Amino acid sequence: MSDGTALLLAVPYYLLVVPASIVLTILSPLYYALQFVLLPFIYLAHFVCRAVVFPFVVVAKLETLWVYLGVAGIVGGTTGGILYLSFGVLKTALNLDSRDEFSGTTAAEYRAARRKKKASQGNIGASVSTDSSGRLRETALLKKRDLLAQSIMKEDGAEY
Questions:
Q1: CA-CA distances (angstroms) from residue 133 to 66, 125, 142?
Q2: CA proximity to 106, closest of 114, 118, 95
Q3: How far apart are CA 70 and CA 78, in angstroms?
Q4: Torsion of CA 84, 85, 89, 95, to 10 degrees
Q5: Residues sharing a CB contact under 8 Å with residue 139, sequence separation 6 or more, in sequence order
Q6: Which of 37, 70, 105, 132 would be 109's cystine partner, CB 3.0–4.6 Å?
Q7: Can you give the pTM of this predicted structure?
Q8: Which DSSP category does 129 fall into?
Q9: pLDDT by residue (tens digit) across 5-22?
Q10: What value, to the nearest 5°, has the Cα angle with vertex 157 and ends 155 and 160?
Q11: Keywords of this protein's UniProt record, alphabetized (predicted)?
Q12: Are 137 and 131 in contact (CB under 8 A)?
């Protein structure tokens, strides 16, 4: 290396690197103190970044599964559609569309007929009696029908 080149490299070194290293040596205790104070916030920032990125990491790990399930869904849907259409065409071509006429009553018709029958019979014997103050008196029809209102008869048969 020639003397001119060595001089050109030495001048910037002594002008920039030496003063910068002196400044860094003086400021390093301040840097370490600041780093010590900010360490909890740095850990918190790392945690938040990892929490935000976590769903993307999981999706990246399950990418093969998503592709497999997507292809399976497309193949299954296409196959189901083809089978549905082909059976529909066969059913109409062979006139297999038999609809049995249901001659009985439906549940809704049965309930409507029952309500109509009860309404036509009326509530015979279900008169509501009131006392002198206008309040309803308890009659046999108004009492609760539960197990406490029924008497349980003991059988006199053989004991087990």
A1: 75, 22, 18
A2: 114
A3: 12
A4: 30
A5: 128, 129
A6: 105
A7: 0.34
A8: P
A9: 888 888 888 888 888 999
A10: 100
A11: Membrane, Transmembrane, Transmembrane helix
A12: yes
